[in-house]
Amino acid sequence: MQNRLKEIIESMIFISLEPLTLEKMKSVLTDFDEKEIEQAIMELLNTFTTNERGIHIIQAAGGYFFSTKPEHDSWIKRLLKVERKNRLSSAALETLSAIAYHQPTTLAEISAFRGVDSTHTLKTLLQKRLVKIVGRKKSPGNPLIYRTSEKFLTYFGLNSIKDLPSPEELSKILEEESVPEEDSPPQ
Amino acid sequence: MQNRLKEIIESMIFISLEPLTLEKMKSVLTDFDEKEIEQAIMELLNTFTTNERGIHIIQAAGGYFFSTKPEHDSWIKRLLKVERKNRLSSAALETLSAIAYHQPTTLAEISAFRGVDSTHTLKTLLQKRLVKIVGRKKSPGNPLIYRTSEKFLTYFGLNSIKDLPSPEELSKILEEESVPEEDSPPQ
Amino acid sequence: MDTSANYQVKLEVFQGPLDLLLFLIRKKKIDIHDIPIATITREYLEYLEQKQRINLDREAEFLLIAALLIYIKSQMLLPREKPLDEEKDPRQVLVNRLLDYQRIKAASGLLKEKEEEELQKWKRTALPSILKEDEMDSIEVSLFDLAESFFALMKRKEKEGIKTIKGKEFSLEDKMKEILALLEIDEFLDFLDYFNQQESFEEALVAFLSLLELIKSRIVVAIQDTHFKPIKVWLRTQHGKGN
């Protein structure tokens, strides 16, 4: 029975494009005990790490999905005839960080944090669905408020926003960083 | 080496949207011997038939692809049903947006605005309870009048319908001329 | 643009003023909590003069921080009786902003590493065609999707010809006449009903303004018996006798 459950879960994860959450699995697998389901997922994850497999199940954005292994990246690129995947610009990454650490937040706040107008970058992030509108702030002008999205988590391989280092941890990282050599360019 | 090849092939089959042909594999895997490749595929197919797996590689339509096992069909259907409940087709989304911004409104108005008959999508939205009937219009035929529902607000995280981004804000967000390249999209 | 490989010193452009300030602070090995404002202002202004090192689209923003630096410098020069306590230090505002920005930059570096890792893993962006079920094109939508969808629809309408939307022009005068004509026939007008009869938002808006105009010029009166009851509009003369 347990084996059959593992099979079913594997096929369900396979068929989902979005990370498949435990809640969703439970809501579908009503014939099974919750404990059984959790147990089966654990076993399934183990199988994939021990076996020599080209694909594995990873956990992100609070759910599970299949992906290829990083070491096969160059082969996949050859197959799909893709030179390289596009990366986010440093402006986009900076804006995302500002939102991630200060959410929910407004465009004016983001711009203030960065010291530069962020209208354009925010628009790009909205269109990429890395950021979402979550409502309006109750303050003069009622500006729209923004948050990072589920896709943000998936994109950066995070299970939840809590996986990001806390502001205190960030400060620690900064302290440990050595002072760069004279005149080295900013990253 | 053979194991690594098997992994690579598995990841390639996984990522292909069309059945992956032997020729295609050979054309990409130029570092490997043709015999080796064929051997690896055979072994890969065997692994999947002997193991208890929810997905397997099958050969059809001139190539190889991953598929769920037929015995799990009912579970997959249950999952897809749950997924579909939370999803809106692009037609439904468009209809919903027309209602949201023009409420109160009638079916005729929605259809005229979209330029397509919206009877079906409106029905879907009513079933999903994102839209509600609020009365009849005092005009020829007394058509029903529709509005977005409370559930609509919850779904989109709005406090009130006034929180919808205004057409002016939309223009600001969506119309600013895009700066090419610098912010190219992730895949 | 010199793209030759010999051109070793690649000039990095500073994205924004805080970016440049942080760079200068690190370069001079300055304690961020105790910035020698005169030195940093001088350095900052020097960089501003070498325009190729700043993002020119952001010139105004660079100048804004320059102004802030100069202001802080002037505050520091004011003669004081007692040394400043930390909270009143004019540099505090700047220090806080820099600390915030520094954290954002550190986080941004981490995200970049994460991105690099994740981009090596490939996920399917669509399910294989063999598996296609009906309605597979369905998407999980957000408020942005909704708004964007409406925006696209508006754009489409605009292209199709504005005449369908703005076919009729509604004048206040005509609407006022219409309302009065209706009041001649019926004793009163149900406010809400009347609006629901308007064919477009535009028309309803004009109708509303006309009504306001009539109320203002004391030709009609709008009455609501109790809260949540329909609002009725009466001609003033008629209503006068009943009240």
Question: What does the secondary structure layout of this molecule look like, with pairings?
Answer:
The complex is a heterotrimer, with 2 copies of chain A (187 residues) and 1 copy of chain C (243 residues).
Chain A: H1 2-15, E1 20-21, H2 22-28, H3 34-50, E2 55-60, E3 63-68, H4 73-80, H5 90-102, E4 105-106, H6 107-114, H7 119-127, E5 131-136, E6 144-148, H8 150-155, H9 167-176
Antiparallel strand pairs in A: 1-3, 2-3, 4-6, 5-6
Chain C: H1 17-27, H2 37-49, H3 59-77, H4 92-118, H5 143-160, H6 172-185, E1 188-190, H7 191-197, H8 201-216, E2 220-224, E3 231-235, H9 236-242
Antiparallel strand pairs in C: 1-3, 2-3
Distance between the terminal alpha carbons of chain A, to the nearest Å? 54 Å
Task: Extract low-pLDDT stretches of chain C.
Answer: 1-10, 130-139, 162-167, 238-243
Helical element count of chain C? 9
Whole-Å distance between the termini of chain C? 84 Å
Structural class of chain A: alpha+beta
Strand content of chain A: 5-15%
Total of domains of chain C? 2
CATH class of the largest domain in chain A: Mainly Alpha
In CATH terms, the superfamily of the largest domain in chain A is: Winged helix-like DNA-binding domain superfamily/Winged helix DNA-binding domain
Secondary-structure class of chain C: mainly alpha
CATH fold-level topology of the largest domain in chain A? Arc Repressor Mutant, subunit A
Described by strand count, sense and barrel closure, the largest sheet of chain C is: 3 strands, antiparallel
Number of helices of chain A: 9
Number of distinct beta strands of chain A: 6
If strands are numbered along the chain, what order do they take across the biggest sheet of chain A?
1-3-2
